Amino acid sequence: MANPFQCNYAIICRIPDSFAQRSVGAENIPGGLNLQKAREEYDTIREVLKNCDVNLIELQEDENYPDCCFVEDCAVVIGGTALVTRPGHPSRTGEVGEIRRVLKQDMRLVVKEVGDAKATLDGGDVLFTGKEIFVGVGKRTNALGAKAVAEAFQDHTVSMVEIGKSDLLHLKDGFAMAGREIMAVSPGIDVAVILKKMQDVASYPYKVMQLDSREAADMLYINGRLIHHVRTEMGDTSYGKLDEKIPYTRHHVQMSELRKVGGTLSSLFIPINIQRAPKMFSSDITNADLGAYTTWTVLH
Fold first, then answer.
1. CB atoms < 10 A from the CB of 249, how many?
2. Distance set, CA 185 to CA 130, 157, 293 (Å)
3. Helix, strand or coil, per DSSP, at residue 44
4. Strand residues in the chain grouped as ranges (E)
């Protein structure tokens, strides 16, 4: 079986100027968002992904969509199949057009759609463990959205997990895969309740690595490496736990500014693993769904 955490391409998107003032939740940040710092964090994460042997397809930012850098919410890709989502916040629905085009025309994946107009689905609510899929149903994803995931990925067990009564915006705000069969979990009674629900319906056992904060549990396992926050954001205890339990190569990044509006490491990219080469060229298009002039380039 192919390594489910192998990734040779990924879609990312630059941060627009409008991010600082109009990103969802930015108005509640004391002192506002520091756009330059957010872009520096994005640039660092981009370089780390490249150092993890990922070819990056970087989309041009779109000022009409302040949160367009959080591309994860626009699609779920597992194997050679991509499900274009139906984001739960109305300000983000137009973001999926360019993502759809890249997945279908340039990456040449099998692209599926969320058929029910009443469904909502954010990619941040879809946790693929490498063996099965958990879908968090709460603030941004409803039961119809979870059903769309099950219909799109019928080769995998898909379990719906209610998270609406917790303070998690997305399921992956509290849970991440830190390795094969290793699940990193953030603290809190609400998260513990969700973990118990996941364990009750799980088809496979997982090692649970309990960490001290949301930042500490925010990580990416990709190509045999682990990307996580810097020690100052994780805390000494959680960082030491990684020293003790994780034998493979680790990369640490700072993400304090992007976290202010709910950004996570996984939210910034759509991982893709394909055996055939996509169309390797830069494209300039006018996309009807976006209503803007957009470009993308492949970064090696």
1. 12
2. 16, 21, 40
3. helix
4. 9-13, 55-59, 75-78, 81-84, 110-113, 126-128, 133-137, 158-162, 175-179, 182-185, 207-210, 219-222, 225-229, 250-253, 270-272, 283-287, 292-299
**% of the chain exceeding 90 in pLDDT:** 88
C-alpha–C-alpha distance, residues 46 and 269, integer Å: 9
Is the pLDDT confidence value at 196 over 50?
A: yes
The band of 177, judged by pLDDT with boundaries at 50, 70 and 90, is very high
Amino acid at 8: N
Distances (CA, A) of 53 to 8, 57, 222: 7, 13, 9
CB 237 within 8 A of CB 194: no
Q: What is the pLDDT of residue 291?
A: 34
Among the listed residues 235, 88, 227, 228, the one whose alpha carbon sits nearest the alpha carbon of residue 170:
88
> What pLDDT score was predicted for residue 256?
95
Nearest residue to 163 via CA among 144, 137, 182, 141:
137
- Does the pLDDT of residue 70 top 80, yes or no? yes
Q: What is the pLDDT of residue 128?
A: 98
**Among 107, 95, 16, 19, which Cα is nearest to 56's?**
107
Is pLDDT at 246 greater than 90 in this prediction?
yes
Q: What is the mean pLDDT of residues 257-283?
A: 83
User: What is the DSSP code string of 63-125?
Assistant: TT-TTTT-GGGGEEEETTEEEE-B-SSGGGGGGHHHHHHIIIIIS--EEEE---TT--B-GGG
Residues 100, 168, 132: CA angle, nearest 5 degrees = 60
Cα Rg, the chain, nearest whole Å: 18
Q: How high is the pLDDT of residue 282? A: 42
On whether the CB atoms of residues 228 and 250 are closer than 8 A, the answer is yes
